[in-house]
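About this split. The held-out portion is used to measure sequence recovery: a designer receives only the structure tokens and must propose an amino acid at every position. Recovery is the fraction of positions where the proposal matches the reference. Here is one held-out target exactly as it appears in the evaluation file.
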């Protein structure tokens, strides 16, 4: 990656953005807009359309009309594959531009953003493009006088609501399989990070995806997201975000057309280090990355560190040494390890968690403060908190910031109990050289993804989703395709 190319893009003028409906930009029906503020320096980047229920109605009507015309829903799998592969190529060709655009919007450090956002999205579109012409229906095992056929048909209109931390990556996890299956989509990007998904919608039209199939309505979640959730002509909602919003979407489904709702609702993921971990230095470095990358704004972040007591002091010392070397700063600099917190609101929430932990008796071992305020941006120190007990708020609730709660444990049974002592169950990690311990812990920890001797890195080939209040939606892998199909039985009498 070339710093000079990044610097050339960082000051490019971003035009004011409109919705993308029916294959073209559209103003909000009431003419309202929102100012986009960069967390890098607190300056305005541009404006985006501030959508209303009327704008959602327009987008859904376009999506439904395209679906009923069959321009995409009844296109051959080979045709959909060709166009989705073209979209993947266009995203990859514009990868650096899209990454810088996204960083200016949400503050992710560029070294991570390039791989996690446009390059990941391109790979996701390719994966589902290649998969779709390999999905077969079924023939049921019936008697000789009957033919039972099981068809897989697209649902119709899929509403996609994504968070601000990785809008392009998480958006593609939902958009790509929904499109591959033949659905039309209406995407509601986060109001503080909409720019990259708007650009991808334009690229979808360039790739030949028919007008009305890929729509984007920007604006507040309380308005646009609610309108999607309550819409009688939306067949499915795929959502990643907070538990509070997820509950509302379930309510909206019940109040409207009983649409399907798939939820991924975050986590409070335990990272468990046993004394026999194969390499404590690697474990310390990976543990720091697992919580502090993207300023801790990662749904699977290892925000609880459980360390076996007989190595606790030594391991925490290693962790502190690694953390001390991590640079907080300009996310468009390749030398930065920890970028900006997404907004003033999120930063205030992070700091409130830290002060609350101290009030409950925990100890800040490093960090805990806002930094670089003179830049106008929203930055926070990497923060490690000790003397944490399982009943503290810092050990139970998702912070979504660069804040790590550390606790000791004696044996595997206690580690599993502590790991499961939250309402969440999205991800976890276990560090051990003992194969039996690894397998027992994988079974014992209630989480959708359990890493062993690593943290993160699970690719598109395996599902991501949680247990308990982390939700029940599964993104990634071939399993995700099933969410976007209806099953239809044809029962044919042959006698």
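Reference sequence for scoring:
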């Amino acid at each position: 990656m070339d710093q000079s190319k990044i610097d050339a893009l960082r000051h490019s003028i971003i035009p004011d953005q409109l919705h993308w409906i029916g294959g073209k930009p559209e103003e909000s029906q009431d003419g309202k807009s929102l100012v986009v503020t960069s967390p890098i320096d607190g300056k305005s980047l541009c404006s985006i359309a501030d959508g209303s229920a009327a704008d959602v109605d327009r987008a859904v009507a376009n999506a439904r009309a395209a679906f009923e015309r069959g321009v995409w829903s009844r296109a051959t799998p080979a045709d959909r594959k060709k166009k989705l592969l073209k979209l993947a190529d266009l995203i990859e060709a514009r990868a650096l531009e899209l990454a810088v655009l996204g960083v200016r919007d949400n503050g992710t450090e560029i070294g991570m953003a390039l791989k996690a956002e446009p390059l990941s999205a391109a790979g996701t579109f390719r994966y589902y493009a290649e998969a779709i012409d390999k999905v077969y229906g079924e023939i049921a095992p019936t008697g000789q006088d009957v033919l039972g056929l099981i068809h897989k048909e697209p649902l119709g209109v899929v509403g996609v609501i994504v968070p601000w931390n990785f809008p392009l990556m998480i958006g593609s996890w939902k958009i790509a399989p929904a499109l591959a299956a033949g659905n039309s989509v209406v995407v509601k990007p986060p109001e503080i990070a909409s720019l990259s998904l708007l650009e991808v919608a334009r690229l979808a039209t360039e790739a030949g995806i028919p007008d009305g199939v890929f729509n984007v309505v920007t604006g507040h979640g309380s308005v646009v997201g609610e309108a999607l959730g309550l819409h009688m002509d939306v067949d499915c909602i795929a959502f990643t975000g907070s538990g509070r919003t997820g509950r509302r979407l379930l309510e909206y489904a019940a109040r409207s057309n009983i649409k399907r709702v798939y939820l991924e609702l975050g986590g409070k993921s335990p990272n468990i280090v046993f004394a026999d971990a194969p390499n404590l230095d690697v474990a310390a470095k990976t543990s720091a990355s697992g919580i502090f990358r993207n300023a801790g704004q990662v749904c699977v972040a290892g925000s609880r560190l459980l360390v076996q007591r007989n190595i606790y002091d030594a391991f925490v010392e290693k962790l502190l040494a690694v953390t001390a070397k991590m640079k907080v700063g300009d996310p468009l600099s390749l030398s930065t390890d920890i970028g900006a917190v997404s907004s003033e609101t999120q930063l205030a929430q992070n700091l409130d968690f830290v002060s609350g932990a101290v009030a409950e008796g925990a100890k800040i071992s490093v960090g805990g403060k806002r930094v670089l305020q003179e830049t106008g941006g929203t930055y926070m120190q990497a923060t490690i908190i000790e003397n944490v007990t399982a009943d503290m708020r810092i050990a139970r609730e998702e912070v979504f910031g660069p804040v790590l709660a550390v606790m000791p444990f004696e044996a595997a049974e206690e580690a599993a109990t502590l790991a499961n002592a939250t309402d969440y169950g999205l991800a976890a990690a276990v560090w051990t050289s003992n194969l039996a311990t690894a397998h027992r812990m994988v079974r014992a920890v209630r989480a959708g993804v359990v890493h062993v001797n690593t943290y993160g890195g699970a690719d598109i080939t395996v599902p991501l989703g949680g247990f308990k209040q982390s939700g029940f939606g599964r993104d990634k892998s071939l399993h995700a395709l099933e969410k976007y199909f209806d099953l239809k039985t044809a029962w044919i009498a042959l006698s």
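Annotator remark: The two ends are 67 Å apart (CA to CA).
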